[in-house]
Amino acid sequence: MGRARINYRRPIYEMGPRTRTQGGLRRPPSMWLWGCGFLAGLGCIGAFVVMLVAVPIGFRLLSPENQIRIANRLPIMRMFIPTREVAALPTLDAAKATDAARFFSTPTSAAGRAATATPTLFPTATFEPLPDTFRVKNAKWIAQKWNNCGPANLAQALNVINVPTTQEAAAAWLKPDANDSNVSPWQLVTFTQQFTAARALHRINGDIMLLKRLVYNGFGVVIETGYSDREDGQWEGHYLTVIGWNDGNGYLLGLDTLYNSDDPLGYHEPYADLLQRWQHFNYTYIVVYRPEQESRLREILGTAWDAQRNIDEALIRSLNEVQQQRENPFAWFNLGTNYTLVGRYSEAVNAYNLARTVGGGWPWRMLWYQFGPYMAYYQTGDYQTVINLTINTETNTKTIEETYYYRAFAYAATGALQQAMDELNRALTHNSNFTAAQQAINQLRNGQKPAPELQ
Fold first, then answer.
1. What is the sign, positive or negative, of the torsion defined by CA atoms of 397, 400, 406, 412?
2. Residue 436, exposed/middle/buried by CB under 10 A (0-12, 13-18, 19+)?
């Protein structure tokens, strides 16, 4: 009896979705896989949308300084930097502006207020002719880290005289608060004297020929200038290490720690342009040198070696400049500072009042770097103006320790001693090495009335 034929299909064995070995039967894809894929895609889209919304909001909550720091590393974030609203300077009373203008109304009256210093004799130095072009051979550019303009330039200048240090080592003492937007010349000098084998001094009233002679004779030279910030187009202060010159093309060579130069010789700027920006800081320069170079430095500086003589000569220069540049707020500001340095505070206030009114007034960042107005207004008893100006500065940045230092003295003068103590402690919070603030605290604790020092 024959076997009946049975219709039978052999199963197809293949690499199935559930197994990586032969033997899995082909099965239709499960709906839950499609669901998981859909949910995963939806989650990615949601995360992307949240990021688009949350990142700009969080970014805008950061301080302007930190926004710029992030944008420098992630350029795409620049699109989220908001337009900065700057607190305008307090308005000067019209009567005070009129009085200030009247005070300096004629060249004769202004010239009559020049310094009357007793001449100090200095030996006449003999200088060899300078070459038409020169560049320091061992100059090395250093890219500054966040707000490290001062420490980085000091490191560059010390490298010139073969006294190596790093901007990190300098910044650790100079600006314990990384967001501190200013390191003053006296701080650079103090660090050099205390923590390196070099010496340093700070002077004003410099000129191009002096810079060339200093650089040519092997000194490290840093100048402080104003410039237009490439980030926001606003004025701010900046140091520059001078390393040479080119008379044929009429420019000075320098190392700019913020922006490297495409020219391997270094950053260069026409003499006239540099002088204009250098004026913004009273032609300030810092010289670092080895102890064995001191006698040569005295010869080159001449009368400027004497700090008081240097100030007296700066005052005469600034008096001449305001007569030629009556609408230049920087010229009037320098005059106010030089009067402050010789203790003639009433004249200083008149000059500062004009600096606040002519030519659009001084820039809103001015009191981040220079503090003569605080001292002049304080010494003439105008404590409220000191308070108003410091509040204005704090509105724009909260990391300048001198802001709180000078406001403390204004409060102390009005009898608000606890407020004065609080302000001094705030200054120390931003810079624990600010010894002037600590000294003032000690005086208040001992029942003494402290007096501010010009920083």
1. positive
2. middle
- Can you give the pTM of this predicted structure? 0.82
Question: What are the distances in angstroms from CA 174 to CA 171, 178, 441?
Answer: 5, 10, 20
What is the C-alpha separation between 284 and 153, in angstroms, rounded?
A: 14
The pair of three-digit structure tokens given for residue 50, joined into one six-digit string: 């949240």
Predicted local confidence at residue 127, as pLDDT: 81
Q: What is the DSSP string of 66-91?
A: HHHHHHHH-GGGGGGPPPPPPPPPPP
β-bridge partners, 221: 242, 287
Mean pLDDT to the nearest integer, 327-334: 98
Strands 251-255 and 235-246, sheet pairing? antiparallel
Which H helix or E strand runs over 256?
none
Surface-to-core class of residue 77, CB atoms within 10 Å of its CB (0-12 exposed, 13-18 middle, 19+ buried):
middle
Q: How many angstroms separate the CA atoms of 380 and 410, rounded?
A: 11
Residue 45: band (very low, low, confident or very high) from pLDDT cuts 50, 70, 90: confident
Q: Can you tell me whether residue 161 is helix, strand or coil?
A: coil
Mean pLDDT of 332-343: 98
Got the DSSP string for 226-252?
A: EEE-TTTS-EEEEEEEEEEEETTTTEE
DSSP symbol at 419: H
Query: Is the domain covering 96-116+344-445 a CATH 1.10.10.60 domain?
Result: no
What are the boundaries of each domain within the chain? Answer: 34-80, 96-116+344-445, 133-307
Task: Write down the CATH number for the domain with range 133-307.
Answer: 3.90.70.10
Under the banding of pLDDT at 50, 70 and 90, the label for residue 98 is confident
Amino acid letter, residue 153: N
**C-alpha span between 367 and 369 (Å, rounded):** 5
Residue 355 CA to residue 370 CA, distance in Å, equals 13
